[in-house]
């Protein structure tokens, strides 16, 4: 063969070998790439498997956590319900105990009040019964004495018509004094209890007063004189007198009354023993009216000496006022007793109020604890509802 042809053949063979080597090299590189891609695909599959396993594990953990949370929430709810029931029971027990204590204290307070009211009522009834008994006895005595007075008046009338006139009786000072004393005694017995006056009472200065009214302070005991000088008035009313004799009789009448006023003021007003004034009893309304109508200077002089002129009518007004004073004094004594009992009741009620306030604070504290527990339960329930509404994101799992 020609050498040229051989060279060409060798060149072709060399080119073919180089081409084949190049092709093998490319195939090897592609194989390496395929191997790398296969390795990456394996890694991707492994990662996908890991992600899938992680997702499954997360779902299992989420389910387990949800079950645990549900269990814990259920447990907490049961515990809360039990605590709430215990709190309500404690509150009910406290309220029931408090109500029992209140009932017991109210019963005790009512019992004490009833006992004290019964005691007061018994004392009042006893005083009223004693007063009624005394009034009945006094009324019977008054009726008895009135019957005696009626008999005495009948005898006086009989004596007046058969023996002497009333003017002759009044002319004698002793008879005049007895007449005034009897009339005064009858008036006082009809108006006052026997313990509140004293007849023919001897004072510390040795003077004997016809009647002494025994009144409580600040009024004090009041002396009453019944020996009014009626001789001058009897002479003043005689028809046969001339004008000069009438003037002389009027002057004598004024002088007798003035002298008697001074005597009453000096004898029967004793500082520290009697009141600062005394009463001069005039047994005839006509004499009393005559003095106030025509001898008012004597009335003013008597007032300056603190001697008050009284007639049977005005004497009744004085005795009525005296009864009012005595009743007021008795009422003050009863009011003092009632005030003492009311003071004891006020102390009992103050203690009751303090204990009631203490019980109210306990109840209020229990109510506050229940409110706080309810607030905690509301918060837990709200969180549980939020957890139930949560949707797990699946973006990381895809």
From TrEMBL:
Native species: Rickettsiella grylli
Function: Involved in DNA recombination.
Ranges that cross the membrane: 6-25
Name recorded for this polypeptide: Transmembrane protein
Gene3D superfamilies xrefs: 1.20.1260.80
Cited Pfam families: RmuC (PF02646)
Biological process, per Gene Ontology: DNA recombination
Keywords: Coiled coil, DNA recombination, Membrane, Transmembrane, Transmembrane helix
Alphabetized PANTHER family for the sequence: DNA RECOMBINATION PROTEIN RMUC
Domain of life, per lineage: Bacteria
Family listed: Belongs to the RmuC family.
InterPro entries per record: DNA_recombination_RmuC
Signal sequence, renumbered to the chain: none
